Amino acid sequence: MLTVDYARLGVNRGDRLLDLGCGFGRHAFQAARLGAEVVAFDAGADEVRKVQDTFGAMMVAGEIDTEKSRVAATQGDALKLPFADGAFDRVIASEVLEHIPDDEVAMAELARVLRPGGTMAVTVPRCGPEFVNWALSDEYHNVPGGHVRIYRQSQLVGRLQSTGLQAVGSHHAHGLHAPYWWLRCLVGPTNDTHPAVSTYHRLLVWDIEKAPKVTRYADRVLNPLVGKSLVVYLEKPNDAEAELFDAAEADAAITNTVPTDTALTTQGAVA
Questions:
Q1: Which of 47, 55, 76, 143 has the least C-beta neighbours within 10 A?
Q2: CATH 3.40.50.150 domain extents, the chain
Q3: What is the model's pTM?
Q4: Span 6-126+141-173+229-257: which CATH code?
C-alpha cells in the first residue's frame, strides 16, 4: 500500500533514497524495485530486522538486481541522522512526523541530508479524518509512540518550508481507509475480531492485492473528500555552491555511517 507517487517524487534508477521511519518497509521495497540505492531508517529494532529479512528475500526472488543495487536497513534517531549533508537525492518520510514531539528538528535533519536539487515526499494523516479518529477514541492516539499532533496542511507546509525546502505539490491518498479507521475507533482500535472490522479489512486486502476497478475507482473518488493521508512534495533549491556537491562523497557517507550490525547491503551478497 503505497502512499507516495514515485513519478512525482522523481525516483530514477541509481538515485540515493532515504526512507525515514520506514516501518516494515513498504516504500523502501518499491524504491529498491525501481533501482534506487535505498537506506531504510527507523527507530524500531524489530522493524529494521524485518526490513533486512525482506530485502534478503527480494534478492533471492530476483526482485532486486544483486549486481547493481545497494540497499540497507538501519536503526537510529530521526533527530540526529548519521548521514552527511546532501547525502540523498530523494527522501521519503511517510506517516512518521506525527509521532515525533520535536518535529521541527526532524524536518531540519531531513532537509539537511537532501542534496540541493533533490526532492522529498512527506505524508501525514489528513486533519479532517484524523480529527474524527481522535474524537471517537482516545485509545487511537493516546498510546506509547502514538500520534502527538494533528497537522493542518498549511502548518505542515510552513514548517517544512522554514527549513529551506520549497513545496511543489500535494494530494490525498487512501480514501477507502478513512472509514475503516472510523469504524475501528468506534468499536475499539484493538478490536480486530469485530465482524464489521474484519469484513472491511478483507475488502482492503482485496483492493491492495488485486486492485479491482471498482475499489480503485472508489478510492480515487474518495481521496479528495476523505483521503486518510496528506502527501506533500518538496524540492531543495539549487545554488552556486550546491553545484559543487560531490556525489562520490555522498556515496561514501552512506556506506560509512550505516552500522554494520544493523545494515544489510547488496552488491551481489548480503553483508
A1: 143
A2: 6-126+141-173+229-257
A3: 0.88
A4: 3.40.50.150
